[in-house]
Design goal:
The chain is an alpha/beta fold and 212 residues long. The chain has two domains: 56 residues, no CATH class; 124 residues, Sugar-phosphate isomerase, RpiB/LacA/LacB (Ribose 5-phosphate Isomerase B, Chain: A). It is 46% helix and 21% strand. The strands form two sheets. The protein has a five-stranded parallel beta sheet with strand order 5-4-6-8-7, sandwiched between helices. A three-stranded parallel beta sheet has the order 1-2-3. Strand 4, helix 4 and strand 5 form a beta-alpha-beta unit. Helix 7 runs parallel beside helix 8. The chain is globular, with a radius of gyration of 18 Å. The two termini are 33 Å apart.
Length: 212
């Protein structure tokens, strides 16, 4: 991660889109640079937050996506796979392949583990409501799964809580809506150091629970 004492507008233009950079203690960002960084979806973290951001595995640019579904979510998964691949994403399918019943915890766990093993930058899990899959995915350490029913919630899930998995309900949204939700989620970045700080607190709670 590149470190700066001062980020100027020229510096901001040289940082690759979607990257995370570190601002040293006492460092500052010029007003023009701040606008450019925001437009280029660059995340700036302070020195104190840098280690936490890395530990939280915040992938702001998603290139590899795993999408899993139980038997109720096949049509939704197919639509999302087509949508993702048409936009150049490397999409891997997980879960049901036919009419045979598949238990959503198994699918959600497979997707969540792939994200934590860095086999995918992010994941999507689908069942009837999305609630059970979100619960199951969140049992995997390091996963922050959010059940999303519209694009606004998807943006909040990404920007405020750094969700690295989203859960969709096949009985609640159709294929077009699901694609809109996925697009909103993928296009949103976690930008504010305060949100990363709060994620580190969530991470600390998780570590505390594992130590018991």
């Amino acid at each position: 991660m590149k470190r700066f004492d001062l980020i100027t507008e020229a510096d901001a233009r040289r940082v690759p889109e979607g990257e995370t950079v570190e601002l040293k203690p006492g460092g500052r960002v010029t007003p023009l640079a701040r606008d450019t960084l925001r437009a280029r979806r660059v995340v700036v973290v302070s020195d104190a937050l840098a280690d936490g951001a890395q530990a939280l595995r915040l992938a702001n640019d998603v290139r590899r996506l795993m999408i899993g579904a139980d038997h109720t979510g096949l049509a939704l998964r197919d639509a999302l796979v087509r949508w993702g691949r048409s936009r150049g994403l490397r999409v891997v399918e997980e879960g049901a392949q036919g009419s045979a019943r598949v238990d959503y915890p198994d699918v959600a766990a497979a997707v969540a583990r792939a994200v934590m093993r860095d086999e995918a930058d992010a994941g999507v899990v689908i069942d009837g409501s999305g609630v059970g899959s979100a619960m199951a995915a969140n049992k995997v350490p390091g996963i922050r799964a959010a059940s999303c029913s519209d694009p606004a919630i998807a943006r909040y899930a990404r920007e405020h809580t750094g969700a690295n998995v989203i859960a969709l309900g096949s009985t609640l949204v159709g294929p077009d809506e699901a694609c809109q939700i996925l697009q909103a989620w993928l296009e949103t970045r976690i930008q504010e150091p305060r949100y990363i700080r709060r994620l580190e607190k969530l991470h600390a709670l998780e570590r505390e629970g594992q130590a018991r």
